[in-house]
Amino acid sequence: MIRKLIGRVLKLKKRHGGGRVVIPAKRHGISRSQLPSFALKTTDRLQEAGFEAFIVGGAVRDLLLGKHPKDFDVATNATPEDVHKVFRRSRIIGRRFRLVHVLYGEEVVEVSTFRGSGEALTDESGRIIRDNTWGSQEDDAKRRDFTVNALFYDPAREEIIDYHGGVEDIEKKRLAMIGAPITRYREDPVRMLRAVRLAAKLGLAIESETRKPIRELAKLLENVPAARLFDEMLKLLFSGQSWACLMQLRDEGLHHGFFPLLDKMMKAPHGEAFLRTALENTDRRIREDKPVSAGYVFAALLWLEVLDNWDKRKAAGEKPMLALFSAIDEVEAVQEEKLAIPRRYGTAMKEIWTLQPRFEQRSGIKPFRLLEHPRFRAGYDFLCLRASVGECEQELADWWTAFQDADSQAREAMLLRPQAGDATKKRRRRRSGAKQGDASAADDGQ
Ligand code: ATP
Ligand code: MG
Protein backbone atom coordinates (compact mmCIF):
# COMPACT_ATOMS: atom_id res chain seq x y z
CA MET A 1 0.00 0.00 0.00
CA ILE A 2 2.73 2.43 1.08
CA ARG A 3 4.91 1.36 -1.79
CA LYS A 4 1.98 1.97 -4.14
CA LEU A 5 1.51 5.45 -2.68
CA ILE A 6 5.19 6.31 -3.01
CA GLY A 7 5.13 4.97 -6.57
CA ARG A 8 2.19 7.22 -7.33
CA VAL A 9 3.84 10.31 -5.86
CA LEU A 10 7.03 9.60 -7.80
CA LYS A 11 5.04 9.12 -11.00
CA LEU A 12 3.21 12.41 -10.48
CA LYS A 13 6.47 14.18 -9.68
CA LYS A 14 7.97 12.84 -12.85
CA ARG A 15 5.00 13.87 -14.98
CA HIS A 16 4.98 17.35 -13.50
CA GLY A 17 8.69 17.81 -14.02
CA GLY A 18 11.12 15.81 -11.96
CA GLY A 19 14.12 17.94 -12.93
CA ARG A 20 16.68 17.85 -15.68
CA VAL A 21 18.14 14.44 -16.44
CA VAL A 22 21.01 14.15 -18.92
CA ILE A 23 21.16 10.82 -20.71
CA PRO A 24 24.49 9.98 -22.42
CA ALA A 25 24.83 8.30 -25.82
CA LYS A 26 25.88 4.97 -24.38
CA ARG A 27 22.51 4.73 -22.65
CA HIS A 28 20.16 6.04 -25.38
CA GLY A 29 22.10 4.84 -28.43
CA ILE A 30 21.43 7.71 -30.87
CA SER A 31 24.53 8.97 -32.64
CA ARG A 32 25.01 12.24 -34.47
CA SER A 33 25.56 10.31 -37.70
CA GLN A 34 21.90 9.23 -37.72
CA LEU A 35 20.80 12.80 -38.37
CA PRO A 36 20.61 14.35 -41.84
CA SER A 37 23.12 17.09 -42.60
CA PHE A 38 20.48 19.85 -42.81
CA ALA A 39 19.34 19.13 -39.25
CA LEU A 40 22.92 19.10 -37.97
CA LYS A 41 23.72 22.31 -39.82
CA THR A 42 20.83 24.02 -38.10
CA THR A 43 21.83 23.11 -34.54
CA ASP A 44 25.58 23.57 -35.22
CA ARG A 45 25.18 27.06 -36.62
CA LEU A 46 22.90 28.20 -33.83
CA GLN A 47 25.34 26.83 -31.27
CA GLU A 48 28.26 28.52 -33.05
CA ALA A 49 26.33 31.78 -32.81
CA GLY A 50 26.21 31.30 -29.04
CA PHE A 51 22.70 29.88 -28.63
CA GLU A 52 21.43 26.60 -27.25
CA ALA A 53 19.92 24.36 -29.91
CA PHE A 54 18.45 20.87 -29.77
CA ILE A 55 16.60 18.44 -31.99
CA VAL A 56 13.27 18.05 -30.29
CA GLY A 57 9.94 16.28 -30.32
CA GLY A 58 8.85 13.61 -32.78
CA ALA A 59 12.30 13.12 -34.36
CA VAL A 60 14.02 12.19 -31.08
CA ARG A 61 11.10 9.95 -30.17
CA ASP A 62 11.14 8.18 -33.54
CA LEU A 63 14.92 7.65 -33.47
CA LEU A 64 14.66 6.07 -30.02
CA LEU A 65 11.92 3.80 -31.34
CA GLY A 66 14.10 2.83 -34.30
CA LYS A 67 11.80 4.56 -36.79
CA HIS A 68 12.56 7.02 -39.57
CA PRO A 69 11.60 10.53 -38.45
CA LYS A 70 9.51 12.33 -40.99
CA ASP A 71 10.75 15.77 -40.07
CA PHE A 72 13.33 17.38 -37.80
CA ASP A 73 12.32 20.19 -35.49
CA VAL A 74 14.76 22.32 -33.54
CA ALA A 75 14.21 24.12 -30.23
CA THR A 76 16.44 27.00 -29.20
CA ASN A 77 16.78 29.89 -26.77
CA ALA A 78 17.26 32.24 -29.73
CA THR A 79 14.22 34.39 -30.57
CA PRO A 80 12.68 34.08 -34.06
CA GLU A 81 14.46 37.29 -35.05
CA ASP A 82 17.83 35.91 -33.83
CA VAL A 83 17.27 32.70 -35.78
CA HIS A 84 16.32 34.62 -38.90
CA LYS A 85 19.60 36.58 -38.65
CA VAL A 86 21.67 33.37 -38.42
CA PHE A 87 20.08 31.79 -41.52
CA ARG A 88 19.86 33.78 -44.68
CA ARG A 89 17.40 31.32 -46.20
CA SER A 90 14.74 31.40 -43.51
CA ARG A 91 11.39 33.01 -42.81
CA ILE A 92 9.39 33.77 -39.69
CA ILE A 93 5.91 32.24 -39.81
CA GLY A 94 2.83 31.68 -37.63
CA ARG A 95 0.62 33.76 -35.43
CA ARG A 96 -0.62 31.39 -32.78
CA PHE A 97 2.92 30.10 -32.44
CA ARG A 98 5.63 32.20 -34.08
CA LEU A 99 8.50 30.14 -35.40
CA VAL A 100 11.13 30.09 -38.13
CA HIS A 101 11.38 27.89 -41.19
CA VAL A 102 14.99 27.35 -42.24
CA LEU A 103 15.18 26.20 -45.85
CA TYR A 104 17.66 23.76 -47.39
CA GLY A 105 16.53 23.11 -50.95
CA GLU A 106 13.43 20.92 -50.58
CA GLU A 107 13.97 20.40 -46.87
CA VAL A 108 12.57 22.66 -44.16
CA VAL A 109 13.69 22.67 -40.54
CA GLU A 110 11.22 24.20 -38.12
CA VAL A 111 12.99 26.18 -35.43
CA SER A 112 10.99 27.25 -32.40
CA THR A 113 12.02 29.35 -29.45
CA PHE A 114 11.66 27.76 -25.98
CA ARG A 115 8.19 28.67 -24.77
CA GLY A 116 7.14 29.65 -21.29
CA SER A 117 4.03 28.26 -19.70
CA GLY A 118 2.50 31.54 -18.46
CA GLU A 119 0.14 34.00 -20.03
CA ALA A 120 -1.04 32.07 -23.02
CA LEU A 121 -4.24 33.61 -24.33
CA THR A 122 -7.15 31.19 -23.82
CA ASP A 123 -10.84 31.19 -24.77
CA GLU A 124 -13.75 30.53 -22.38
CA SER A 125 -13.28 26.73 -22.54
CA GLY A 126 -9.59 27.02 -21.63
CA ARG A 127 -8.37 26.49 -25.19
CA ILE A 128 -5.06 28.23 -25.99
CA ILE A 129 -5.52 30.76 -28.75
CA ARG A 130 -2.10 32.39 -28.75
CA ASP A 131 1.11 31.51 -26.99
CA ASN A 132 4.22 33.49 -27.76
CA THR A 133 5.83 33.92 -24.37
CA TRP A 134 9.41 32.73 -24.28
CA GLY A 135 10.80 30.60 -21.48
CA SER A 136 13.55 28.20 -20.44
CA GLN A 137 14.14 24.74 -21.85
CA GLU A 138 12.42 23.30 -18.81
CA ASP A 139 9.35 25.49 -19.44
CA ASP A 140 9.37 24.39 -23.04
CA ALA A 141 9.44 20.72 -22.08
CA LYS A 142 6.50 21.22 -19.75
CA ARG A 143 4.19 22.71 -22.35
CA ARG A 144 4.72 19.83 -24.78
CA ASP A 145 2.05 17.16 -24.84
CA PHE A 146 3.46 13.71 -24.01
CA THR A 147 6.59 12.71 -22.10
CA VAL A 148 7.95 10.92 -25.17
CA ASN A 149 7.55 14.14 -27.19
CA ALA A 150 9.47 16.32 -24.76
CA LEU A 151 13.00 15.03 -25.31
CA PHE A 152 15.85 17.30 -26.43
CA TYR A 153 18.81 15.85 -28.32
CA ASP A 154 22.04 17.82 -28.47
CA PRO A 155 23.92 16.56 -31.54
CA ALA A 156 27.19 18.20 -30.45
CA ARG A 157 27.33 16.32 -27.14
CA GLU A 158 25.16 13.41 -28.29
CA GLU A 159 23.12 13.76 -25.10
CA ILE A 160 19.38 13.65 -24.49
CA ILE A 161 17.91 16.05 -21.96
CA ASP A 162 14.79 14.56 -20.38
CA TYR A 163 12.61 16.38 -17.83
CA HIS A 164 9.62 14.04 -17.70
CA GLY A 165 10.86 10.47 -17.92
CA GLY A 166 10.22 10.26 -21.66
CA VAL A 167 13.10 7.88 -22.37
CA GLU A 168 11.81 5.44 -19.78
CA ASP A 169 8.29 5.74 -21.20
CA ILE A 170 9.62 4.89 -24.65
CA GLU A 171 11.32 1.82 -23.22
CA LYS A 172 8.08 0.82 -21.53
CA LYS A 173 6.04 1.66 -24.66
CA ARG A 174 3.85 4.09 -22.74
CA LEU A 175 2.21 7.30 -23.86
CA ALA A 176 1.68 9.62 -20.89
CA MET A 177 0.57 13.23 -20.79
CA ILE A 178 2.82 15.78 -19.11
CA GLY A 179 0.94 17.44 -16.26
CA ALA A 180 -2.75 17.03 -15.48
CA PRO A 181 -4.42 15.39 -18.50
CA ILE A 182 -7.80 17.12 -18.05
CA THR A 183 -6.24 20.60 -18.02
CA ARG A 184 -4.00 19.76 -20.94
CA TYR A 185 -6.94 18.48 -23.01
CA ARG A 186 -8.93 21.59 -22.18
CA GLU A 187 -6.06 23.80 -23.32
CA ASP A 188 -5.97 21.95 -26.61
CA PRO A 189 -8.56 19.25 -27.38
CA VAL A 190 -6.54 18.13 -30.42
CA ARG A 191 -4.22 16.46 -27.90
CA MET A 192 -6.91 13.78 -27.51
CA LEU A 193 -6.68 12.97 -31.19
CA ARG A 194 -2.90 13.07 -31.00
CA ALA A 195 -2.91 10.61 -28.10
CA VAL A 196 -4.91 8.09 -30.08
CA ARG A 197 -3.02 8.62 -33.33
CA LEU A 198 0.45 8.45 -31.80
CA ALA A 199 -0.42 5.41 -29.70
CA ALA A 200 -1.73 3.53 -32.76
CA LYS A 201 1.08 4.70 -35.03
CA LEU A 202 3.92 3.98 -32.62
CA GLY A 203 2.53 0.92 -30.88
CA LEU A 204 2.38 2.63 -27.45
CA ALA A 205 -0.23 2.02 -24.77
CA ILE A 206 -2.03 5.13 -23.53
CA GLU A 207 -1.35 5.37 -19.81
CA SER A 208 -4.58 5.09 -17.79
CA GLU A 209 -4.69 8.64 -16.33
CA THR A 210 -4.05 10.01 -19.80
CA ARG A 211 -6.74 7.87 -21.33
CA LYS A 212 -9.48 8.13 -18.72
CA PRO A 213 -10.75 11.69 -19.33
CA ILE A 214 -10.90 11.40 -23.11
CA ARG A 215 -14.38 9.96 -23.45
CA GLU A 216 -15.92 12.67 -21.32
CA LEU A 217 -13.98 15.53 -22.91
CA ALA A 218 -14.47 14.33 -26.49
CA LYS A 219 -17.14 16.97 -27.04
CA LEU A 220 -14.51 19.73 -26.68
CA LEU A 221 -13.45 18.92 -30.22
CA GLU A 222 -16.47 20.95 -31.30
CA ASN A 223 -14.56 24.11 -30.36
CA VAL A 224 -11.60 23.32 -32.55
CA PRO A 225 -11.44 25.15 -35.88
CA ALA A 226 -12.27 22.82 -38.78
CA ALA A 227 -8.97 23.56 -40.54
CA ARG A 228 -6.99 22.21 -37.57
CA LEU A 229 -9.15 19.11 -37.42
CA PHE A 230 -8.53 18.62 -41.10
CA ASP A 231 -4.74 18.78 -40.59
CA GLU A 232 -5.03 16.17 -37.89
CA MET A 233 -7.28 14.04 -40.11
CA LEU A 234 -4.62 14.10 -42.84
CA LYS A 235 -1.94 13.02 -40.36
CA LEU A 236 -4.17 10.23 -39.17
CA LEU A 237 -5.06 9.01 -42.64
CA PHE A 238 -1.44 9.02 -43.76
CA SER A 239 0.05 7.59 -40.58
CA GLY A 240 0.39 4.12 -42.10
CA GLN A 241 -2.00 2.91 -39.38
CA SER A 242 -5.14 4.70 -40.44
CA TRP A 243 -7.54 1.82 -39.90
CA ALA A 244 -6.20 1.09 -36.41
CA CYS A 245 -6.31 4.83 -35.59
CA LEU A 246 -9.88 5.19 -36.76
CA MET A 247 -11.06 2.18 -34.78
CA GLN A 248 -9.32 3.44 -31.66
CA LEU A 249 -10.87 6.86 -32.14
CA ARG A 250 -14.24 5.18 -32.27
CA ASP A 251 -13.52 3.17 -29.13
CA GLU A 252 -12.72 6.42 -27.31
CA GLY A 253 -15.83 8.15 -28.64
CA LEU A 254 -13.67 10.75 -30.39
CA HIS A 255 -15.09 10.37 -33.87
CA HIS A 256 -18.34 12.27 -33.22
CA GLY A 257 -16.77 15.69 -33.47
CA PHE A 258 -14.35 14.55 -36.09
CA PHE A 259 -15.88 12.09 -38.49
CA PRO A 260 -19.53 12.04 -37.52
CA LEU A 261 -20.52 9.74 -40.37
CA LEU A 262 -18.42 6.89 -39.08
CA ASP A 263 -21.15 5.19 -37.02
CA LYS A 264 -23.59 5.25 -39.89
CA MET A 265 -20.98 3.98 -42.33
CA MET A 266 -19.97 1.09 -40.15
CA LYS A 267 -23.59 -0.07 -40.11
CA ALA A 268 -24.29 0.46 -43.82
CA PRO A 269 -24.25 -2.54 -46.17
CA HIS A 270 -20.59 -3.17 -47.12
CA GLY A 271 -19.71 -0.21 -44.86
CA GLU A 272 -17.12 -1.73 -42.58
CA ALA A 273 -15.51 -3.83 -45.32
CA PHE A 274 -15.41 -0.83 -47.61
CA LEU A 275 -13.72 1.48 -45.12
CA ARG A 276 -11.37 -1.16 -43.90
CA THR A 277 -10.26 -2.18 -47.38
CA ALA A 278 -9.77 1.44 -48.44
CA LEU A 279 -7.74 2.37 -45.38
CA GLU A 280 -5.71 -0.83 -45.26
CA ASN A 281 -4.80 -0.32 -48.92
CA THR A 282 -3.68 3.20 -48.04
CA ASP A 283 -1.69 1.94 -45.06
CA ARG A 284 0.04 -0.63 -47.22
CA ARG A 285 0.95 1.96 -49.86
CA ILE A 286 2.38 4.27 -47.20
CA ARG A 287 4.46 1.48 -45.74
CA GLU A 288 5.73 0.63 -49.23
CA ASP A 289 6.56 4.31 -49.78
CA LYS A 290 4.13 4.58 -52.68
CA PRO A 291 2.21 7.77 -53.33
CA VAL A 292 -1.35 8.04 -52.03
CA SER A 293 -3.91 10.58 -53.04
CA ALA A 294 -5.83 12.37 -50.33
CA GLY A 295 -8.72 12.92 -52.78
CA TYR A 296 -9.01 9.18 -53.23
CA VAL A 297 -9.06 8.49 -49.50
CA PHE A 298 -11.71 11.15 -48.89
CA ALA A 299 -13.72 9.77 -51.80
CA ALA A 300 -13.66 6.40 -50.03
CA LEU A 301 -14.56 7.82 -46.62
CA LEU A 302 -17.66 9.56 -47.90
CA TRP A 303 -18.76 7.39 -50.82
CA LEU A 304 -21.34 5.31 -49.00
CA GLU A 305 -23.03 8.47 -47.82
CA VAL A 306 -23.12 9.76 -51.37
CA LEU A 307 -24.49 6.41 -52.52
CA ASP A 308 -27.20 6.43 -49.90
CA ASN A 309 -28.26 9.96 -50.75
CA TRP A 310 -28.10 9.19 -54.47
CA ASP A 311 -30.26 6.06 -54.12
CA LYS A 312 -32.90 8.01 -52.22
CA ARG A 313 -32.99 10.68 -54.89
CA LYS A 314 -33.27 8.14 -57.70
CA ALA A 315 -36.05 6.36 -55.85
CA ALA A 316 -37.83 9.70 -55.60
CA GLY A 317 -37.69 9.99 -59.37
CA GLU A 318 -34.71 12.30 -59.96
CA LYS A 319 -32.66 11.64 -63.08
CA PRO A 320 -29.61 9.54 -62.21
CA MET A 321 -26.78 11.89 -63.13
CA LEU A 322 -28.46 14.99 -61.77
CA ALA A 323 -29.31 13.05 -58.63
CA LEU A 324 -25.66 12.13 -58.22
CA PHE A 325 -24.56 15.75 -58.47
CA SER A 326 -27.18 16.81 -55.94
CA ALA A 327 -26.16 13.99 -53.60
CA ILE A 328 -22.53 15.08 -53.82
CA ASP A 329 -23.46 18.70 -53.07
CA GLU A 330 -25.47 17.66 -50.05
CA VAL A 331 -22.80 15.38 -48.58
CA GLU A 332 -20.19 18.07 -49.17
CA ALA A 333 -22.24 20.72 -47.41
CA VAL A 334 -22.58 18.51 -44.31
CA GLN A 335 -18.88 17.68 -44.29
CA GLU A 336 -17.72 21.21 -44.91
CA GLU A 337 -18.64 22.30 -41.45
CA LYS A 338 -16.61 19.58 -39.72
CA LEU A 339 -13.89 18.62 -42.11
CA ALA A 340 -13.18 21.68 -44.26
CA ILE A 341 -11.73 19.61 -47.06
CA PRO A 342 -9.68 22.09 -49.12
CA ARG A 343 -10.69 22.56 -52.70
CA ARG A 344 -7.72 20.75 -54.20
CA TYR A 345 -8.70 17.50 -52.48
CA GLY A 346 -12.41 18.11 -52.90
CA THR A 347 -12.12 18.42 -56.68
CA ALA A 348 -10.33 15.08 -57.01
CA MET A 349 -12.82 13.44 -54.68
CA LYS A 350 -15.80 14.64 -56.69
CA GLU A 351 -14.26 13.60 -59.99
CA ILE A 352 -13.67 10.10 -58.68
CA TRP A 353 -17.33 9.90 -57.67
CA THR A 354 -18.77 11.28 -60.87
CA LEU A 355 -16.64 8.89 -62.92
CA GLN A 356 -18.23 5.85 -61.29
CA PRO A 357 -21.45 5.71 -63.35
CA ARG A 358 -19.41 6.25 -66.48
CA PHE A 359 -17.73 2.88 -65.97
CA GLU A 360 -21.11 1.30 -66.61
CA GLN A 361 -21.05 2.48 -70.19
CA ARG A 362 -19.29 -0.14 -72.20
CA SER A 363 -20.50 0.44 -75.74
CA GLY A 364 -19.69 2.91 -78.51
CA ILE A 365 -17.11 5.65 -78.08
CA LYS A 366 -17.63 6.27 -74.36
CA PRO A 367 -15.21 3.71 -72.89
CA PHE A 368 -12.45 5.15 -75.11
CA ARG A 369 -13.20 8.65 -73.91
CA LEU A 370 -13.15 7.50 -70.31
CA LEU A 371 -9.68 5.97 -70.77
CA GLU A 372 -8.43 9.43 -71.75
CA HIS A 373 -9.83 11.10 -68.65
CA PRO A 374 -7.02 12.56 -66.49
CA ARG A 375 -8.55 11.00 -63.38
CA PHE A 376 -9.17 7.61 -65.04
CA ARG A 377 -6.63 5.77 -62.92
CA ALA A 378 -8.02 6.98 -59.59
CA GLY A 379 -11.57 6.33 -60.80
CA TYR A 380 -10.65 2.81 -61.90
CA ASP A 381 -8.86 2.05 -58.62
CA PHE A 382 -11.97 3.22 -56.84
CA LEU A 383 -14.14 0.95 -59.00
CA CYS A 384 -11.91 -2.00 -58.03
CA LEU A 385 -12.26 -1.07 -54.38
CA ARG A 386 -16.04 -1.06 -54.72
CA ALA A 387 -16.01 -4.41 -56.50
CA SER A 388 -13.70 -5.99 -53.94
CA VAL A 389 -16.28 -5.55 -51.19
CA GLY A 390 -19.26 -6.42 -53.42
CA GLU A 391 -20.60 -2.88 -53.69
CA CYS A 392 -20.58 -3.24 -57.48
CA GLU A 393 -20.10 -6.14 -59.90
CA GLN A 394 -16.63 -7.69 -59.97
CA GLU A 395 -17.26 -8.46 -63.62
CA LEU A 396 -17.39 -4.73 -64.35
CA ALA A 397 -14.02 -4.07 -62.71
CA ASP A 398 -12.52 -7.09 -64.50
CA TRP A 399 -13.82 -5.80 -67.81
CA TRP A 400 -12.02 -2.48 -67.27
CA THR A 401 -8.85 -4.23 -66.17
CA ALA A 402 -8.83 -6.17 -69.43
CA PHE A 403 -9.96 -3.23 -71.56
CA GLN A 404 -7.05 -1.03 -70.47
CA ASP A 405 -4.47 -3.64 -71.40
CA ALA A 406 -6.06 -4.74 -74.67
CA ASP A 407 -4.91 -3.51 -78.10
CA SER A 408 -7.32 -1.49 -80.15
CA GLN A 409 -8.70 -4.46 -82.07
CA ALA A 410 -9.34 -6.41 -78.88
CA ARG A 411 -10.95 -3.36 -77.34
CA GLU A 412 -13.39 -3.06 -80.23
CA ALA A 413 -14.24 -6.73 -79.76
CA MET A 414 -14.86 -6.22 -76.05
CA LEU A 415 -17.43 -3.49 -76.48
CA LEU A 416 -20.89 -4.48 -75.42
CA ARG A 417 -23.68 -4.11 -77.90
CA PRO A 418 -25.89 -1.16 -77.12
CA GLN A 419 -28.72 -2.56 -75.06
CA ALA A 420 -31.81 -3.39 -77.07
CA GLY A 421 -34.11 -0.42 -77.11
CA ASP A 422 -31.42 2.13 -76.21
CA ALA A 423 -31.72 4.01 -79.47
CA THR A 424 -35.49 3.93 -79.60
CA LYS A 425 -35.77 4.98 -75.98
CA LYS A 426 -33.44 7.86 -76.61
CA ARG A 427 -35.41 8.95 -79.62
CA ARG A 428 -38.66 8.60 -77.76
CA ARG A 429 -37.27 10.53 -74.83
CA ARG A 430 -36.10 13.36 -77.01
CA ARG A 431 -39.47 13.61 -78.64
CA SER A 432 -41.37 13.51 -75.37
CA GLY A 433 -39.06 16.14 -73.81
CA ALA A 434 -36.98 13.90 -71.47
CA LYS A 435 -39.51 13.26 -68.78
CA GLN A 436 -38.22 13.30 -65.20
CA GLY A 437 -37.76 9.88 -63.72
CA ASP A 438 -37.17 8.09 -67.00
CA ALA A 439 -35.60 4.84 -65.89
CA SER A 440 -33.43 4.48 -69.01
CA ALA A 441 -30.12 5.16 -67.38
CA ALA A 442 -27.90 3.92 -70.18
CA ASP A 443 -26.78 7.45 -70.83
CA ASP A 444 -26.32 8.26 -67.20
CA GLY A 445 -24.75 5.06 -66.14
CA GLN A 446 -27.16 3.56 -63.63
P1 ATP B 1 4.42 13.37 -36.09
O1 ATP B 1 5.30 12.17 -36.18
O2 ATP B 1 3.03 13.08 -36.41
O3 ATP B 1 4.98 14.58 -36.78
P2 ATP B 1 5.05 14.90 -33.78
O4 ATP B 1 4.98 14.58 -32.32
O5 ATP B 1 6.39 15.23 -34.34
O6 ATP B 1 4.39 13.69 -34.53
P3 ATP B 1 4.28 17.50 -34.62
O7 ATP B 1 2.92 18.00 -34.92
O8 ATP B 1 5.32 17.49 -35.67
O9 ATP B 1 4.04 16.05 -34.05
O10 ATP B 1 4.78 18.31 -33.35
C1 ATP B 1 6.13 18.42 -32.96
C2 ATP B 1 6.23 18.49 -31.43
O11 ATP B 1 5.53 19.62 -30.95
C3 ATP B 1 5.63 17.32 -30.68
O12 ATP B 1 6.52 16.24 -30.57
C4 ATP B 1 5.29 17.92 -29.35
O13 ATP B 1 6.43 18.03 -28.54
C5 ATP B 1 4.86 19.32 -29.72
N1 ATP B 1 3.41 19.40 -29.95
C6 ATP B 1 2.75 19.24 -31.11
N2 ATP B 1 1.43 19.41 -30.97
C7 ATP B 1 1.24 19.70 -29.68
C8 ATP B 1 0.10 20.01 -28.90
N3 ATP B 1 -1.11 20.02 -29.44
N4 ATP B 1 0.28 20.29 -27.59
C9 ATP B 1 1.52 20.28 -27.03
N5 ATP B 1 2.63 19.99 -27.71
C10 ATP B 1 2.51 19.71 -29.01
MG1 MG C 1 6.77 15.98 -36.33
Reported by name, the CATH topology of the largest domain is Beta Polymerase, domain 2
Query: What Rg, in angstroms, do the CA atoms define?
Result: 27 Å
CATH level-1 class of the largest domain: Alpha Beta
Euclidean distance between termini CA atoms: 69 Å
CATH superfamily of the largest domain: Beta Polymerase, domain 2
Overall mean pLDDT score?
A: 87
Sheet-strand content, in percent, reads 5-15%
| Major sheet characteristics | 8 strands, mixed
How many structural domains are formed by the residues? 2
Q: Which ligands, by name, code or SMILES, are bound?
A: adenosine-5'-triphosphate, magnesium ion
Instruction: Supply the number of helical segments.
Output: 23
Give the total of beta strands: 12
Q: Which consecutive residue ranges, at least 5 long each, have pLDDT under 50?
A: 423-446
Shape: elongated
Which structural class best describes the helix and strand composition?
alpha+beta
